[in-house]
Amino acid sequence: MRTLSLVFFLLSLTFCRRETEEFAIQIALPSDPAHLDPLFSTDLTSQKLARFLHQGIYQAEKESFVSPWISKSKHIANPSLEIWRIEFNETSPPIVDIHFSLARLISESYPRKADYQFLKSVKIIPSSPNTTPSTNTVPLETPTSSTTAFVGTRSKATLEFHFQKGTTETEWKEKLSLPFASIIGKEEWENHNLKTYGKYKLNQWKKNEFIDLQYQKEITNDLPTSIRFRILPQSTTSLFLYRKSELDAFKLSDFLLSIPEATSEFTLTKKGRSVQYVTINQTNPCFDLHFRNALNYSIPREQIIQKLLENHADLTYGPIPLPYIEKLNLNLKKIDISYDKEKAITELKHSKCYPTILTTELEFRMRGDDENQSKGRAIKQALEEIGLKIKLKPMEKAPLYKENGEGKGDLTLLTWYSDYDSIWNFLDPLFHPDKIGNGGNRSFYQNKMIGQILGKPNRNLNDAKQVTETVTMEKPWIFLWSIQENYLVSKEFLRYSALADYL
Question: What range(s) does the Solute-binding protein family domain occupy (predicted)?
Answer without folding.
Answer: 149-437
